[in-house]
Please model this.
Amino acid sequence: MTRSPRTVYAAAATRLTMIGLIGLIAIPMPARAESSRPHPTTARPASARPASESYRLHCSGCHRADGRGVPGVAPDLREIGPLLRTAAGRAYLGRVPGVAQAPVDDDELARLLNWVLTEIAGTPPEPAYSAEELGVLRAEPLRDPVAARKLLPDPKL
Ligand code: HEC
Model:
């Protein structure tokens, strides 16, 4: 079967288009300026990050987006409000490893913990945790948080 001039033209055009496409894919590769731009989340100074975002980044993986936790893995943060009733409970919340060792500075940690207590546990701390208070507490993370928790009054009572 002989190819009509039209078919030959179409085939040539297809080939040219392919070459053009390959060029489009190949040429801009070295010029990926965007990849060297810092990610918007990491670029933003920590102090400006909303506490809800800090929570999503550093806590929700274990405690879930709504704080309900995962049975046997991470406790329910909706239940922690009553721990604020005693000084020991208040200190515990700043020293439990998930809080004390969160990769945020004291200021962001204070805003984060106040947010968790207010928005997730429905119990705004009075007074709110300050960066200074948390700086002191987190310097001594609990080695055995489960044992420490058992020494506190049962928050469900
Ligand atoms: C790797 C999983 C994990 C991450 C991430 C994590 N936690 Fe936890 N969290 C736990 C576990 C497990 C416990 C129980 C105590 C323990 O074993 O440390 C706990 C306990 C707590 C408690 C005490 C709750 C109670 O009822 O005793 C609080 C408050 C808390 N976490 C807050 C946070 C906050 C805020 C963040 C984010 C900055 C965070 N956690 C990140 C796993 C995690």
